[in-house]
Amino acid sequence: MSSIHDFATWEPLLRLVRDSHAEQLAAPGGCFTGQISLGSWTLPAQQPRSVPGRALQVADMQDQFTAVARVQAALRADGASGVSYMVETAPDGKTVLHVIDAGPAVEHGVRSPFVGALLLVEGAVPEPWRRLPEEFPEAAPAPSADPALLERTLHERLPDTIGATEEEIAAAEARLGVTLPDELKALYRVTRARWQDWSGDYAAQERVSKAVGCELFPLDGLYIADARSRPCPWQFAAKDAVVTAPDAAVQGLVGSPGWIAFGDNGGGDRLALDLTPGPGGHAGQVIMIDHERSIGAALRADSLTDMVVNHRDDWRSDDDWNRPPVVAQVSTHSPGDMVAAARPELEVLRIGGRKGEPVGLSPVAGLPRLRTLTASPGTLADPLEIAGLTGLEYLSLGPEEWRVLLNAGAVPRSLSAAAIDVQGEQHPLPVLDLANELLALWGRPLITRTVLEGDLDTDRTAGGTR
User: Please, what's the b/e burial string for 437-464 (b: 16 or more CB within 10 A of its CB; e: otherwise)?
Assistant: First the structure.
């Protein structure tokens, strides 16, 4: 048994939990859950009271830090990055610890510390992450694109910088597998933006950023901002949709093989040259990839020349994704919305509850593009109607609805991922068992649970894996 499965490893943490929440642990079905990783943790222990006139000190929480560090050391020794746990009290008063390994087929949970999306098909990604850009041959470079003007302007602003050689530019092209646009080559011929060239001079770096209009990546920092560069958990990504309006300057994509990221705005948003523009855009336009979004990008300038010469720093975004008719939100309070949502374009259907009657799925049965259904617990009149949704790749339901499908052998085999919507206070173990039933249908690695039992006062322990 590895050290993460030794009761002694957890004893300091378990004492903190017991001492902070003894009454709740003693209640029938009472338990606490949490996670510990190498960089963060959830510890259901009371925070120390601060001393008036003095900020909270590290020493005030030293017991917590010491307890967590002990578990983290065991993780490192086992070559693991994180672990979930549940604590409860046995009838004889002993402390019971469940050490949970979600395994490679389960994403990190948000509402539950154990179960996020279940990855039923290895390597599968949601449809928006598979979408490639459309081709618009009429999208030409903007009239403002002028590599010679761009290079002269930058030489005037940055007379003492070191530019990239043609060999270095060719090496970058070979690494990326694309030919760099002439404007981008002109920029790097003036400055290759290497930190070594500035000899630790932050002022020199700032001059380059001010002259260009962004924090410029060095040549070896250029990357293709395709969909793989913008990962997102299934439980969020499956609810997104790719939409490009007929006059959009930027295609509403997750990423594109034609998005060449070359800088940052200092706040985590990436600048890229767009070689696959929308029907209303220009080839080589500058776009901003918002780090707080997972779909689309905003137009920064019609060309790199325009951005640099004219100091363009405004964004213009085409926010056409996550709207009807492609994405629909229906509530039990307004069941008529289901009929309105039943459009051939519908890809994502979200059903929520507002104390109304459960809704039926017959209006959306057979829709050709419907791939995602999320239904809050108790919102479906008949879960077996899901059989009429033949193209689902992602399904999120409450535990009772999943039980109906499992008992009837009616879980859609088209699914690539699934989620269990747990709301309110529910004991985690039945949810874990349900998740394992779903994983087993696809032959995926199961969630494992090691149960350790011990007396924190006498150091007597026992354990087993389930």
Answer: ebbebbebbbbebbebbbebeeeebebe
CA 310/CA 145 separation, integer angstroms: 12
- Report the run of H or E that residue 73 belongs to, with start and end: helix 62-78
CA-wise closest residue to 377 among 426, 435, 439: 426
CA-based max dimension of the chain: 82
Least confident of 74-78, 323-327, 427-431, 448-452: 323-327
**H-helix segments, 225-349:** 234-237, 304-309, 337-341
Q: Using one digit for the tens of pLDDT, what is the confidence trace for 46-72?
A: 555 655 665 555 555 688 888 999 999
d(CA 242, CA 347) in angstroms, rounded, equals: 10
> CA 116, CA 97: separation in Å to the nearest integer?
21
Q: What is the length of the chain?
A: 466
List, for residues 159-196, the tens digit of each pLDDT value.
999 999 999 999 999 999 999 999 999 999 999 999 99
Q: How far apart are CA 402 and CA 397, in angstroms?
A: 6
Give the gyration radius of the chain's Cα atoms: 27
Global pTM? Answer: 0.89
395 burial level (CB within 10 Å; 0-12, 13-18, 19+) = buried
What type of residue sits at position 364? V
